[in-house]
Amino acid sequence: MSGRRTLYEIYWEILVFCKTPRSFTGIINRCDLNSKTGQEYLEFLTAKRYLTTITDGEKTSYVSTAAAGEYITLFSSLYQNLFDKTPGFRL
Amino acid sequence: MKDTALTGFKIELNSFFALVILNITFGALAMAIGVSFMVTAVLGLAGAQIPLPLRIIAGSFFMICFGLGFMWVLTSARILKGITGVRREYRKQREPVPGEILTGWIVRLMANYRENKKTISWMILICSLGGGTYLVLGILNIIQGITLVEGVLDIWMRVLPFAAAAINLTIGLASLLSGYYLSKFSKTWDRRLEEVERSEDTLKKTLGLDRP
Is B155 on the interface with A (CB under 8 A)? Predict the structure, then answer.
């Protein structure tokens, strides 16, 4: 996904994508991030315990934790409310 | 996933898609008319009695119209690109739509609006100015048609200014209408952006993302 996204939207995308274990490359490709910022976001989410790493030999994968589920639910609810509350646009 | 959110999303997606398509259509029409009138004005086919400098001025004006039409089509196509992906996925998706999928679409539309916010503001301004100009041109065509009626015998030469008036008035009204709807769209999404900013505060506080 490209375009101007907020930090929280990017966090949400990463956490949803990582519901199943994902590699670093897979995450930055899917979430349209460069390596540097991708690494920063993953480090942040790991430090906050929203992501955890699984190491299988040389391969490291990231997976969302239960705490991430809370964030995902709250985020989804807030964004869907945008179409519930605000009078929408129609022709 | 809330049904009302999905219904609102669906209506909005289709409305905005239709609005952008309408913009592309009228942009293309403005291009075609611009070229046609530019050639006519420069070559003096519409009336050999019109002096050359006036024909050059008219030709330049219609060349600008062509350029604006071209820009309009390109800009609208760029905006369209941002929503066609979501629309395609929406049409493929079977109901009930999972909440995360809907949220993902909302995030994408939000990103698309942020990216095109400035362009849309310009489009609203150009729609209003362009619409007004085309309306004035249409009115001038009517005046020209009325004043020509007595002097010209050829029926086509009599009808031509009225046909031009009809085209100009249609484009003028379409531009004004397009500007009105774009402005309505922009206001709706600006309110959403404000709402998102407030939501981010909630996300920060609730989940402790604001703490180091």
Answer: no
